[in-house]
Specification:
heterodimer, A: 93 residues, alpha+beta, four-stranded antiparallel beta sheet, 24% strand, elongated, B: 310 residues, alpha/beta, eight-stranded mixed beta sheet, 8 strands, 16% strand
Chain lengths: 93, 310
């Protein structure tokens, strides 16, 4: 199973069109390996992105540098997946 | 493992094999109402099944519901399983479902992307696309919700095989999509088409590729309002509704733009729970509440389709 230890899901709030465009720039940076769960749309609508552990610092620095607000929606993706697996195994047992 | 659909645990997530076993049990328990059709095979050779709920007749007006075209959206396949059981329970008991099935058939594809779903269980829980290979690229998979022959290749999808919204080389390149296309065309009498995704709590109608309102916008919008009202009445879950383009973002080559272009007026897509706390990793404890509330919206739409023949 692929491991998602340390991956976080950030909820980004782009306040205006310029910030939406900035997040779209982020989307184009393939080396960050970002996984947009909810892509950039219009100002005011949330953007959710899974960020692999090695990219977290870069992404947060980028957002903060452009004054784009965000919160951590999922602190550690793998811990949620572990819970999910445990539930499935518990039922099977 | 469950021995019947009564002992099947609807409140946990299941593997592809378990869901396929569930389908066989449901058919065996309800031979007069439910049958299982194989509409194709996946890229990796798995069968693609659709449950048909019918009380008779030949190619009656029908409603199509699919769940799980994006494999990681597990609450959708789980809800689809619950819907299947609910239909069998309500037929003969609930006046609306009984009336719908007395006049129409319901087709339910619980696992629309079986390869992707199996992959989410075996290798990568967050896999979203199909598992097809693209010549000349090391990246795998196509977004099956950008692969339909509706403004295919226009903005709102990616031409890069390494992205999550990769549209594929050509429309219907994905057998999982082509199988539905062939089925819908061959049937020729599908009047409502509902494609179910998660998450973000939306009920959407065409178009996704353009912000031009569709010709039936007023009616579709009013029906969406009624469906969302019914949904919210159970647990207070807040939904937004509108066209794909205006409510979320431009999405070309999507499912319901194609079904609408085929003359299926009542074409909708859902985005089920959640509010943003878990995303695709919705805890299993929320499966049944999600399915229950969504069911109310589905019945509202299906009832309207039955009452407004065209």
């Amino acid at each position: 199973l692929e491991n998602f230890v340390g991956h976080q899901v950030l909820r980004i709030s782009a306040a205006d069109e310029a910030q939406v465009q900035k997040v779209k720039e982020l989307e184009d940076l393939e080396h960050l390996q970002l996984d947009f769960w909810r892509g950039p749309a219009q100002p005011g609508s949330s953007i959710d992105v899974r960020v692999p552990f090695p990219s977290i610092q870069a992404v947060k620095v980028f957002l903060e540098a452009h004054a784009i607000s965000y919160s951590i929606m999922i602190e550690d993706v793998q811990s949620l997946l572990d819970e999910e697996q445990e539930q499935m195994f518990a039922f099977q047992g | 493992r469950a021995r019947s659909t009564n002992t099947f645990n609807y409140a946990i997530y299941h593997t592809l094999d378990e869901i396929y076993e569930f389908m066989d049990m449901l058919v065996a328990e309800n031979p007069q109402l439910v049958s299982k059709l194989q509409i194709g095979n996946t890229y990796e050779g798995r069968p693609i099944y659709v449950l048909k709920f019918s009380t008779g007749g030949n190619k009656r007006p029908a409603i199509w519901i699919d769940t799980g075209i994006h494999s990681r959206e597990w609450v959708t396949q789980a809800s689809g399983t619950w819907f299947a059981k609910k239909i069998t329970e309500d037929y003969g008991q609930d006046p609306k479902i009984t009336a719908i099935l007395s006049n129409m058939d319901i087709f339910l594809e619980i696992v629309t992307n079986p390869d992707g779903f199996a992959f989410t269980h075996s290798t990568n829980r967050l896999w979203r696309k199909t598992r097809s290979r693209t010549a000349g690229s090391s990246c795998i998979g196509v977004d099956p919700n950008r692969n339909w022959d509706a403004a295919f290749g226009m903005p709102g999808a990616s031409g890069n095989p390494c992205t999550e919204t990769y549209r594929g080389k050509y429309a219907n390149s994905e057998t999982e999509v082509k199988s539905i296309v062939d089925f819908v065309k061959d049937h020729g009498n599908i009047k409502g088409f509902i494609s179910i995704h998660s998450y973000s709590q939306l009920l959407l109608y065409p178009y996704g590729y353009t912000n031009t309102p569709n010709p039936d916008q007023q009616e579709l919008d009013q029906l969406a309002k009624e469906a969302v009202t019914a949904l919210s009445s159970l647990h207070g879950t807040k939904y937004t509704y509108g066209s794909i383009y205006t409510t979320i973002y431009q999405a070309s080559g999507n499912t319901i733009d194609w079904t609408y272009s085929q003359g299926i007026k009542y074409s909708y897509t859902f985005e089920l729970r959640d509010t943003g706390r878990y995303g695709f990793l919705l805890p299993a404890s929320q499966i049944i509440p999600t399915a229950q509330e969504t069911w109310l919206a589905l019945v509202t739409i299906m009832d309207h389709v039955k009452n407004h023949p065209y």
